[in-house]
Amino acid sequence: MPYAKRHRLVRSAVALVLGTTALAACGSESADSETEAGPASLTYWTWTPGMDKVVDLWNKGPGKKDRITITVKKQASGDTLVTKILTAHKAGKAPDLVQAEYQALPTLVSNDALADISENVGDAKGSFADGVWQQTTLGTDAVYAVPQDIGPLMFYYREDLFEEYGLKVPTTWDQFAEAARKLKKAAPDKDLTTFSANDSGLFAGLAQQAGAKWWTTSGDQWKVSIDDAATQKVAKFWGGLVEEGAIDNQPMYTPAWNKALNTGRQIAWVSAVWAPGTLTTAAPETKGKWAMAPLPQWDASENRTGSWGGSSTAVTTDSKHQGAAAKFAAWLNTDSEALNALAKESGIYPAAQNAQTSGAFLKPPAYFSNQADFYTKAADIAETTAPSAWGPNVNVAYTTFKDAFGAAAKNKSDFGAALKKMQDDTVADMKKQGFGVAR
Amino acid sequence: MSSLTVPGAEPLAGSTPGTDRGRPPLRRRIALIPTVTLLLGAIYCLLPVAWVVIAATKSGRELFSTFTFLPGTGFAGNVRDLNAYRDGVYWEWMGNSALYAGLGALLSTCVSAFSGYALATYRFRGREAIFNVLLAGVLMPPVILAVPQYLLLAKADLTDSYLSVLLPQILSPYGVYLARIYAAAAVPADVVEAGRMDGASEWRIFTRIALPMMIPGMVTVFLFQFVAIWNNFLLPYIMLSDDEKFPITLGLFTLLEQGANTPALYTLVITGAFLAVLPLVALFLVIQRFWSLDLLSGAVKS
What ipTM was assigned to the predicted interfaces of this complex? Predict the structure, then answer.
């Protein structure tokens, strides 16, 4: 796709959304203003725990030299933060820097909330895998954020129980389904895993692995392909397993789910690289009994994964010191001292490739002390991440997913119909917002 | 559950000695249904509270692995962890909540008392129009006003300040409505008239005569408003970005939503929620007695 065209598309989307209101004028005015030199005091909205300590390193080191001081204002993560940023942006009061999940970037950019920082952070590109960097450019020649952490999908399983029930670690999804059935036969009260209709991000990652591209552009129009063949394949696969009762249909991240993991009622989990942290609190009794393997593949000849989560550092158009803010964003996510501190204080898995196997990542996480090469393996898997394609209303797609798939999983009914609803609602919302949508 | 309802019903049936001795079975049947309904309602409301109380005593290890209503052993540890979390920021949130709710409810009660009394006592043009607008305000959920209020306060450069959370909550349509109804019922026109006849100024009549009569109603307004502000989430969420100004609701939310790669701090959130309920319970127990005051008795002979 031609870069310039895509860029224009984003711009026209902005114009459409904001129309001729004063807001548009307000937003572009501050975007065009030259970066002010001299001392800068910047605010940074982030949910990462321990970020204040990492920022201290900047304020005492490179920041002191450049007279750029960062103040962390800790926020709660999730879609609500995107709404909060957009509300603040409407009033021209967004902070200088924000943490944003990759799938939220198109929403923020189409509302003209994020500044193009390509001039200041262009050099950082080399530190990241292409698939990761592409998420921050939205396929244009602009750069809207610097990648911070990533969440490549992997397969986690109880090593001891797999052995007990004679299960093989699945390398393809067919083997995965077989393992689920075999376990159900051997121990009807146990499940290999569950399909959680609460976790849209996981489903999106699984579709991404299968090759789905939910949002693309053609000409000056968006194309929504949530209901494409790849995603249908994924939905049918999981829907089939739920329907035949081979896996559970209860949501993840509930006390009941924690208990199922902790007591070995569920013996595997399709999750991302950050799973050790979750397992530490969800299933403390099973420490050292888990192992990690690459995600099963659709075809034995393939080697791909999707991602679940991950976020970036972006500079807002409301910032009066965009250059200074971008400088900090680049330091935070590429400097080895900063990345070490991020790993130590915040437990994040860095997007920067050279950091994935150095410093804190030389040793496996404590929960996986039995798997010495955990992070080497993780870095290899991360490199196979399939490209993603996010659009301007991921939140709407995610909400519909929760409703439609929630009902389908509960009733063990057709996942295909749920997927169609997800597609229709997403398209309807984009049209309502004024985006041109091709069918 | 059935074992709970039976003893509950009995004292009520027995609490009507002497009356209608002829047909006690009928009365008993009538009393049984409401009693059972109320008891079920009470259980429905109290069960989650009991869960919070018990869960707050469990350590992280016990939380999801032991029986739900079996008390744990980790309460002291949980409080210690909560204390230590980011140098005791929890208590800062608690202090902020107390400030927002305490000062906000007090100011809101004052405004409600003034306007309620004025609407009830004076006749002036547009009185009903004002009252109808207020009624419409009662029907309007405060949630939908939060964003416009933010945009408004942003124009005045007041966002992310203590005032931004206090100001919008001072005018409570429901409080004014309640104050008017209460003033109309509790402050007889005769008393106001008598005060005027004796040469008291309007201000003096209000502060010395009407206000004392309105106290039970104002206590209600204060309590409602205190609880509403204490529990309010969306307004401070949109207004505040500095987490040292957060009230307890927002603070606990940030503990829960730490991003996917960080486990939610369940034990801290549960212990924090439990401790955050205590001031409300204490407030109700202390202020409750003002409701029983009957200042009206002896003021007018009718």
Answer: 0.77
Q: How far apart are CA A281 and CA A366, in angstroms?
A: 12
Q: Which homologous superfamily is B83-292 in? A: MetI-like (1.10.3720.10)
**In angstroms, rounded to a whole number, what is the distance separating the alpha carbons of residues B261 and B184?**
58
Q: Which residues contact A207 (CB under 8 A, 6 or more apart)?
A: A214, A230, A231, A234, A306
A264-313 pLDDT, tens per residue? Answer: 999 999 999 999 988 988 888 899 999 999 999 999 999 999 999 899 99
Q: Is B243 part of the contact surface with chain A (CB cutoff 8 Å)?
A: yes
The CATH classification of domain A152-306+388-438, taken from the options 3.30.70.20, 3.40.190.10, 3.30.428.10, 2.40.30.10: 3.40.190.10
d(CA A76, CA A68): 25
3-state secondary structure of A308: strand
Residues of A in CB contact (< 8 Å) with B are 43, 45, 47-49, 73-78, 80, 84, 87-88, 90-93, 95, 149, 151, 201, 255, 258-259, 262-263, 272, 274, 277-278, 280-282, 284-285, 308-309, 311, 346-349
Residue A220 has what DSSP assignment?
T
Q: How far is CA A384 from CA A131, A137, A302, in A?
A: 9, 19, 10
**Segment A400-428 mean pLDDT:** 94
CA distance B108 to B105: 5
CB contact under 8 A, A87 and B238: yes
Spans of all domains in chain A: 3-151+309-369, 152-306+388-438
pTM across the whole model: 0.83
